[in-house]
Amino acid sequence: MTTTDTPLDKVLGAKTAKALAEYLELHTAGDLIYHFPRRYDERGEHTDLRQLEVGEQVTVLAQVQGIAVKPMRARKGNMLEVTIGDGSGATLTCTFFNQAWRERELLRGRWGLFAGKVTEFRGKRQLNGPAYQLLKADATQDEAAEEIEEFAGALIPVYPAAEKVPTWVIAKCVRTLLDTFQPPDDPMPGSVRAKRNLVGIGTALREIHRPSSEAALYAAKHRLKWDEAFAVQLTLAQRRARAAAAPGTARPRRDGGLLDKFDAALPYELTEGQASVGEEIAADLSRAHPMHRLLQGEVGSGKTLVSVRAMLQVVDAGGQAALLAPTEVLATQHFRGISAQLGALGRAGELDGDLDGTQLTLVTGSLGAAARRAALAKVADGTAGIVVGTHALLYEGVDFKDLGLIVVDEQHRFGVEQRDALRAKAARPPHVLVMTATPIPRTVAMTVYGDLETSVLSQLPRGRSPIASHVVPALEKPAYLDRAWKRVKEEVAAGHQAYVVCPRIGEDEESPLSDTDGESARRPPLAVTEVLPALQQEYLKGLRIEMLHGKMPPDEKDAVMRRFAAGEVDVLVATTVIEVGVDVPNSTVMIIMDADRFGVSQLHQLRGRVGRGSAPGICLLHTEAVEGSAARERLDAVASTTDGFKLSEIDLEQRREGDVLGASQSGKHSHLRLLSLLRDEKLIKEARVEAAELVGDDPDLAGHPALAASVAALVDEDRAEYLEKG
């Protein structure tokens, strides 16, 4: 009998097992049985070739329609061109170099499965040297059906595959495995299975690979999705239970303290959202167990102000607050911004400071020795009530007198071990407020941030201007790009400033090599070091232009940002280092070069850097993506709305679930592959309810050892950390 722990070489032989391990990271029977098909082709229902995209690794069921042998022009030898079609009217060319012998078997009219990477040459889509498996020549419809049945049955599973291990090879391996596979004991509690009408694990694993009917396949997928959702929600429920039981220090609001003085001095009223979220946080801080709250809000919605008010409440209660930022640029920006907001309240001990105030200090890796010693002394003796810093706050030697609150800005940039390192600097578990400007769909918040209470700021503060966004299709309409540069000049002439954002720095970065055999390679993304001289010498000649990127020395980056903020620079050519926290209200226009190389949420974040003052903002999305392509549709969506939550759902639709749940982050093979955070909201909610009930009765799952083991397999330690990290 074969179990989930059986090595694949014992089942499939050494050669096949080696290929599965090398190309797909499948090592055990459990790895292979959980390598689920990504879709299914129905017998007689051919894949529509019109839907294939260049760059996609595909498997198609198609018929040979034409064949020709041609001499190669650039070198000796010949090229075999085979035209295949699927009955939809579209065709695909398969090319083989110096393999004319294949002409004897790839006969006109033969049907087969063809697998390879879709490329384009001279306007024609093609597969270069595809692997293929032909159906029997002159087979009747029934015989062809039997041939296909050898691979997978009535519904043909199409697996995530590799060039050296095509989908039909995987299907054969799975069939061999299923002949001897002994499914594990069902980890799902019987009460949950009965209540939620779930099939057994053995049935689900067989039907997902060899479905006997559409209904059986649906039931199998539904059960396996439940396993994934339940594992994640149990992990989060356990974390919530531990957090609720942890002892903390209450930091109640003090009448007449710094927070009251700060509120009284504000030159504007809080938005309704800022006020209500502020009350939620104030109540959390007043309790004797640690707050764990996520604050999400659109770019410019006023999250920093909410966090400053929380920090002042903690300082009023005798504690210290630390704001952790992902970059020195952002940490310095926060330090200056909070210093300006607090005014005299943040300068206690100075001539113009408030006697009852506190002090701010900045801790970054680039501080000189003397400045570092002075800053750390203020942190250690409690003089600095508010400490702003980067990862440097985590280092040994940074000691707090009484750390009461940690504010983590742009939460997704930090690992759980970094957050834990800062927590460890407090005598008792501190309150934690994590902030993100990336809007999060409800199911992602429920799944990825499920151990945190969530607050949302949806209103923009008064005085913020609207941002208009437009796609600039450089290949189709080159005049549009010329007009974009003119628009930058017009904004600068009106006294405003501009950003030009590029995907790459350009220094010491490898460019993709051109593909051989006639496939035209996509050009490398535009780089800061390439675009800067072109702007200086031609398109924006005469303007004051500087660059900013992550590889510059910290003091140089800081100097550039100071000059830009002071209005001494007209145009800043930068990478995504400006994505978060950079606040220059005089900036009104942004051009994002090769915008299709960025994700939806990242584009939304970037454009939030303009329109931060009274003048309206404009964001121009430069692209060479053609109309109708997925990349262009993505940009059109970004241009059509400034609703971050709507865009976050578009972003989620285009990402693999594993990316959201941490598979790509951990760099490991993931078993979380069926659950859709966009489409399975109802299922996730139900799993959350069942998980909370089960953990309430049995916090450590001691009465359910098989379930505990299943959770550990589906959400391993790395992925559990990623869930906490977000």
Describe the protein:
- The chain is of the alpha/beta class and 726 residues long.
- The protein contains 26 helices and 21 strands.
- A seven-stranded parallel sheet has the order 11-12-10-13-14-9-15, with helices on both faces.
- Strand 18, helix 18 and strand 19 form a beta-alpha-beta unit.
- It is globular.
Outline the secondary-structure elements.
Blueprint: H1 9-12, H2 14-24, H3 29-33, E1 39-42, E2 57-71, E3 78-85, E4 91-97, E5 111-121, E6 124-128, E7 131-134, H4 141-151, E8 155-158, H5 167-180, H6 190-196, H7 201-209, H8 214-245, H9 258-265, H10 272-285, E9 292-297, H11 303-316, E10 320-324, H12 328-342, E11 359-363, H13 369-381, E12 384-389, E13 403-409, H14 416-423, E14 431-436, H15 442-447, E15 453-457, E16 467-473, H16 478-493, E17 497-501, H17 528-539, E18 545-548, H18 554-565, E19 571-574, E20 587-592, H19 600-607, E21 617-623, H20 630-640, H21 644-653, H22 657-661, H23 663-666, H24 681-697, H25 705-714, H26 717-725
Parallel strand pairs: 4-6, 9-14, 9-15, 10-12, 10-13, 11-12, 13-14, 16-21, 17-19, 17-20, 18-19, 20-21
Antiparallel strand pairs: 1-8, 2-3, 2-5, 3-4, 5-6, 5-7
Helix pairs in contact: 7-8, 8-24, 8-25, 9-11, 10-11
